[in-house]
Amino acid sequence: MQDIPAEDTPTYEMISRADTVGVFQIESRTQMSMLPRLKPCTFYDLVIEVVVVWQGSIQGGAVHPYS
Fold first, then answer.
1. Is the pTM of this model over 0.85?
2. Other C-beta atoms within 10 Å of 35: how many?
3. Do 46 and 15 contact (CB within 8 A), yes or no?
4. In a domain, 8, yes or no
5. Is the pLDDT of residue 67 over 60?
6. Which of 16, 22, 34, 41 has the highest local Cβ count within 10 Å?
7. Which domain, by its residues, includes 32?
8. Which residue range or ranges hold the DNA polymerase III alpha subunit finger domain (predicted)?
9. Is residue 4 one of the residues assigned to a domain?
């Protein structure tokens, strides 16, 4: 893990295209539909994207700033 760059641009380009089948946490249809809209380019962006889609965030009204 320590050898994997934290902010690997090609990886984030792939994620932003929703090319994430089989990638834990971002493989569901809902997650994949959000990725091209939010275009995460850092790990923190990706964390926000995952949290936004979680059911608790949606029910708690925390999605509004990001949708």
1. no
2. 21
3. yes
4. no
5. no
6. 34
7. 16-59
8. 2-66
9. no
Residue reference for tokens 């249809």: 29
**How many domains does the structure of the chain reveal?**
1
Q: Which residues of 53-62 are buried (b: 16+ CB within 10 A; e: fewer)?
A: beeeeeeeee
Which two three-digit tokens encode residue 24?
């834990």
Tell me, what's the pLDDT at 16?
94
Query: 48 exposed, middle or buried (CB, 10 Å; 0-12, 13-18, 19+)?
Result: middle
Torsion of CA 20, 51, 44, 42, to 10 degrees: 30
Does residue 64 form part of some domain?
Answer: no
Residue 5, domain member (yes or no): no
